[in-house]
Amino acid sequence: MTPLVSTSTTVTPGFDESALVARAKAGDAAAFSELVSHYDRRVFRMAKQITQNDEDAEDVLQETFLKAFTHLDNFQGNSKFYTWLVRIAVNEALMKLRKRRSDRTVPLDEPIDTGEDEMVREIAVWDENPEDSYSREELAEILDQAIQSLKPAYRTVFILRDIEELSIEETAEALGLSISAVKSRLLRARLQLREKLTRLFKRKGDDAFAYL
Amino acid sequence: MTRLLTCKQFLQELNDYLDDTLDPKLKSELQKHVNECPNCWVVCDTTQKTLKVFKGMEPKPIPEHVQTKLMQALERRLKDKGCGGGKIDV
After folding, report:
1. For chain A, how many structural domains are there in total?
2. Contact A66/B73 with Cβ under 8 angstroms?
3. Which residue from A23, A25, A106, B33 has the fewest beta carbons nearer than 10 Å?
4. B13 contacts in A (CB within 8 Å)?
């Protein structure tokens, strides 16, 4: 088996991010609006996944683009524009989350128990293309629920690294975590999601060791 | 002679293996392990597929009223910034 090389962000034909950013910086509102319409769905999805609240997600979406617009001159182009946008959005979303949860739950930087022996319970091969057995809506619901079942500390790392495709270093920087903390949380998140999906997607009729 | 990895060691390196960020020597040790250990092969394969399923999900369109509010807020900011009251169309 060969490793999966991380795929880059979806490329839309005719969409030139750096040219649009340059035009927006020069005061071209249409260029900024094109950037908004290209990324607003993803920012909104991320905000909903982190805050798990529609109202908060709307605020995060709005604040993210307003801040990006206001501080566009500060964007130096050292990272991709979208990475910069994600950093703004994740800060806004975490602020909302902390505000809502400040009285009753653990902070995002809680120590993580490392019960490594619990990491892998369900070992079974999947159906061929199991996602084809579900409609788009059903699959979206399954994936949403799987993400929501993760602890916030794991969930946020997974969203930034594996859905928004930030690098490990960018994820660490955006969340104020060490590289090793990002890596260990990511491993837990990936394995927990794998576990959840395996329960649904495993080949029917197989017992756990039928492939042996 | 290459040393044999335990399943626990394999799991600890699984992230970097999937992201292909390992040095070639460790990568080949992991490859050897995964090709010989059915359990780790399944875990690796299904984790890889898990990531693929998540990466393949397109975000849903934003509700219209949310998008309208966003555009109105941006237009107000545009005027404040002194861009001559340009209209933002999406």
Report:
1. 2
2. yes
3. A106
4. none
